[in-house]
Write a structure and sequence with these properties.
With 236 residues, the protein is α/β, with parallel strands linked by helices. Helices cover 29% and strands 22% of the residues.
Length: 236
């Protein structure tokens, strides 16, 4: 059994120099867990699908806000930067992987993209739409875990991470509102914000709202998520 090839969907920035990229921490997490990262920038849909057809799993990384028009809403004043091509790329890849039962690990924005791909909606801005929220855009070091989550025992995430109270880092102002079809909530924060979802119809489709790739050096348990993802991809 060879090393699984993992597609990492590229972020897109227009400021200064227009560029596509993936943060090094995602690449390192895949390599450390035994996978081969393949970076996928925006390009014609047919070409994206041709690349995806040769992969064993995909990762949807963090990034910009998802365009609310994708889930039937108009942007509120607090909605941040959106990028139509980035949204297209991620949603194409999520749909392709879901249809073919390819393992998916979706992180932060990726978790939200996964939810939207399955018909769910988002909270556009936690501070202005949720009463008494925690600070979900931390100003602590990026690796530092700042709030607790509770994990459902009978879940993929529970089997990977255990169900004792866990602390995670937090870099988001949006979150899942209505859960998408075929997804279930498997972790939440004390203020009720959904912190993880997983598919009830696929063997490994996991979305987490925090950033385990930033935690692995200081919290080795975070590496288990990538290890199990790569193991599932190796069986594709």
């Amino acid at each position: 059994m060879g090393q699984p090839m993992i597609g990492l969907l590229c972020a897109h920035v227009r400021e200064k120099r227009d560029q596509y990229f993936v943060y090094t921490t995602y690449i390192e997490a895949v390599v450390k867990a035994g996978g081969i990262p393949i970076l996928i920038p925006y390009q014609p849909k047919e070409q994206v699908f041709r690349i995806l057809a040769g992969l064993d799993g995909i990762m949807l990384p963090g990034g910009n806000d998802v365009d609310p028009n994708r889930y039937g809403e108009y942007p509120t004043v607090q909605c941040g930067d959106i990028d139509p091509h980035w949204d297209e790329l991620d949603l194409w890849a999520a749909g392709f992987a879901l249809e073919r039962n390819l393992p998916i690990l979706a992180i932060c924005r990726g978790c939200q993209v996964l939810n939207v791909a399955l018909g769910g909606t988002l909270i556009q801005d936690i501070p202005s739409q949720i009463e008494g929220p925690l600070k979900h855009r931390q100003e602590a070091p990026k690796w530092y875990a700042t709030h607790d989550i509770s994990v459902q025992a009978a879940s993929l995430l529970g089997r990977i991470w255990g169900t004792d109270p866990k602390r995670v880092n937090s870099y988001h102002h949006q979150a899942i509102a209505k859960v998408g079809h075929g997804l279930r909530i498997v972790a939440s924060a004390p203020d009720g914000i959904i912190e993880a979802v997983e598919s009830t119809d696929h063997r490994f489709v996991l979305g987490v709202q925090w950033h385990p790739e930033l935690m692995v050096e200081h919290y080795p348990v975070a590496g288990r998520i990538f290890q199990h993802f790569i193991q599932a991809a190796a069986k594709s």
